[in-house]
Amino acid sequence: MNSRLRQLFLFGLLVLGAAPIRAQGNGPAGHGARATALGNASATLSNEVWAGANNAAGLGTLTRPTAGAYFENRYLITSLNVAAVALALPLGIVEPAAAGQPARAEWGVVGFEAQRFGGALYSEVRVGAAYGYRLGVVNIGGRLDMLQVSFRDLGSRRALVGSLGGQAEVVPGHLTFGVYLYNLNQAKLADYQDERVPTVLRAGLAYRAGKQVLVLVESEKDIEHDVGFKAGLEYLPASAVALRAGYASLSQQTTGGVGVKTGNFQFDYAAGWHSVLGLSQFLSINWQWERKP
Q: Which residues form the signal peptide (predicted)?
């Protein structure tokens, strides 16, 4: 199949909403190469800027301002590219860790993200604001998106999408439960056939077997499609290096990646492989800095 036919084939599948291989489909997209390398089992991930996209509750443990950039290419086709930038800002003073609880920002953490997916035929643009707060052993959070979906020659549609999430330490320091409901308001894109943004519920567990190993399992249910399962494994051979692997049943994709931390910067790379569609690549760069008193 030549590149032009391959592009049209994939675009047709995307428009038809074929769940196993859709790239974005205006549903929740896992962002940050760390999450992607872990099979997008990200409902329990916290303390990073991309929690604002993956589960806003995870922003609650972030204590330093952080900015990030994310780039994604699926199946080596430019019309399936994703680009995103994100910013997270702790509010108020940072309360130090105490009584076995991590440090937290006094008034929680606010996050902002802008992302674009697609090419000339079809594209999605969304701008979102998120908020996360730490309360004891629980993180709670929410996000509001302005989503614009555009078809060439057919115009654009816009919708407001609201999402809520939570995380709880079942066994502090070892076992965490996370849940995230995307599009709780069931936002409508068009009156024709009552077209709506997908409503998706994700729930997962994270088990930390010591300081070096993190195991993730997660289920995902779109109300109009079958349930899917995800799994991820992260291993830290050194404090500044992470090796990752994952699998997602809905996308039928095996993933792997590496993360390196140097100074205030975090570099993450991931690659995914689909047995029919081939290679996808993902890259994110995060920068943290100290707040002025």
A: 1-23
CA distance linking residue 171 with residue 251, whole number of Å: 31
Residue whose token pair is 């940072």? 94
Superfamily of 3-288 according to CATH: monomeric porin ompg (2.40.160.40)
Which of 217, 214, 218 is CA-nearest to residue 203?
218
pLDDT means per 10 residues, the chain with 293 residues, are 47 42 53 94 94 94 95 90 96 78 86 92 92 93 93 85 95 94 88 81 94 95 89 95 94 93 96 91 95 67
What does pTM read for this prediction?
0.86
Q: Domain ranges in the chain?
A: 3-288
Question: Which amino acid is present at 47?
Answer: N
CA distances from 115 to 29, 73, 193, 244 (A): 10, 14, 27, 24
* Positive or negative torsion for Cα 39, 196, 128, 25: positive
Terminal-residue alpha carbon distance, the chain: 59
pLDDT of residue 266: 96
